[in-house]
């Protein structure tokens, strides 16, 4: 039951954060067209919204990857899974007055792909939380300028193909960058 409540809360939060991110992108586009210095505005917007391989910064949130680790089936952090997982520890910082939690921040910014299918994009499924110390904090509302540590795991399909994290400006937003993580 607790899992269902978390899932519903996570989905609702995702739509809220995605809508905010997309509105911000539209506002930036409108401002760029309205000014004679379109190139300068675009350059400034790119500096404010980015992914540098470790930190993804959007208008409302910044997510910093702290550690990645492959956890085999049965090991601590993947005791109940039936596939090895890529575990990622990260910090989520709320840069706004909006209600943002660590899970929503991560899911709104990142997706994980393991490119081992010649015919389709293989987006990885989220697994069980790998760090039990984050059970209570994963859905906590982060205060403005506050930072909360969290973790997430993705179920791996093999242990040879690297995982590519794709950072976007909110769900369905423009791609900000990619980070390849080796799993072998």
TrEMBL record:
Species, as recorded: Metalysinibacillus saudimassiliensis
Domain of life the protein comes from: Bacteria
Pfam families: DUF5067
Segment forming the signal sequence: 1-18
Transmembrane region(s): none
Domain DUF5067: 37-168
Key words of the record: Signal
Name used for this protein in its record: DUF5067 domain-containing protein
């Amino acid at each position: 039951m607790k899992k269902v409540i978390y899932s519903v809360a996570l989905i609702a939060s995702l739509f809220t954060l995605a809508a905010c991110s997309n509105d911000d992108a539209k506002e930036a586009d409108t401002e760029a067209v309205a000014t004679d210095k379109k190139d300068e505005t675009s350059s400034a917007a790119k500096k404010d919204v980015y992914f540098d391989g470790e930190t993804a910064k959007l208008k409302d949130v910044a997510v910093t990857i702290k550690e990645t680790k492959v956890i085999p089936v049965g090991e601590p952090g993947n005791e109940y899974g039936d596939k090895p997982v890529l575990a990622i520890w990260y910090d989520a910082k709320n840069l706004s007055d909006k209600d943002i939690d660590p899970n929503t921040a991560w899911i709104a910014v990142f997706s994980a792909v393991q490119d081992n299918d010649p015919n389709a994009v293989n987006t990885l499924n989220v697994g069980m939380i790998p760090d039990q110390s984050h059970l209570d904090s994963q859905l906590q509302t982060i205060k403005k300028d506050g930072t909360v540590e969290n973790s997430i795991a993705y179920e791996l399909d093999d242990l040879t193909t690297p995982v590519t994290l794709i950072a976007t400006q909110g769900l369905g937003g423009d791609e900000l960058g990619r980070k390849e993580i080796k799993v072998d």
